[in-house]
Write a structure and sequence with these properties.
This protein is mainly α. The chain is built from 9 helices and 3 strands. It is globular, with a radius of gyration of 18 Å.
Length: 178
């Protein structure tokens, strides 16, 4: 929801600029997402739930969510980005030279040593995205990372992941409000 609000504000700003005779081609923008911070917060909430989970299936489901929500959220957001970038409203702005508001993946160093040190780079490669890498992550990716378009992979499972998170009692909406 926050991303949609940001994207709409960007388009409204470009429309207002154009209405005043300005050129939308002169504007560049990104919408930033702090990736690993999402997993750090969600994982802590899942760990709390794991302390009281007594059914094996519940424990397995909670465990399966750890370290997956940030990437899932980014992939779903990218799908929203594509819808916006192909909307009639955006097409009208693009005809005036407007550039899309790219998605910027920030905080992409891995905080949890149990996760791959390049997971937030490898899983979020896609057109019109930016990834701000700390030097150690860039060095690790250069050493053993794999370059391939991945942002579109696993979309069919992404909503299932978010639904499972909600049914586990952890609200992405509440976490995003932090």
């Amino acid at each position: 929801d926050n991303y949609i609000d940001v994207a709409r504000a960007y388009m409204s700003g470009l429309e207002a600029l154009s209405a005043r005779g300005g050129s939308p081609a002169d504007v560049a923008s990104v919408a930033s997402f702090f990736i690993s911070r999402i997993d750090t917060l969600i994982d802590s909430k899942l760990d709390e739930k794991l302390t009281t989970a007594d059914r094996p299936r519940e424990r397995t489901e909670l465990q399966s969510l750890k370290g997956s929500v940030a990437i899932t959220n980014a992939k779903l957001t990218y799908q929203l980005y594509k819808k916006i970038a192909t909307s009639p409203r955006w097409k009208e702005l693009a005809e005036k030279g407007a550039r899309t508001q790219r998605l910027l993946w920030a905080s992409t160093s891995t905080k949890n040593p149990a996760y791959s040190d390049v997971r937030y780079v490898e899983e979020l490669i896609g057109t019109d995205t930016v990834n701000t890498l700390p030097q150690a992550t860039m060095d690790a990716f250069r050493d053993h990372g794999r370059t391939r378009p991945t942002i579109e992979g696993g979309i069919s499972l992404a909503q299932d992941t978010m639904d499972l998170l909600e049914s586990s009692g952890v609200s992405m909406f509440d976490c995003a409000e932090h």
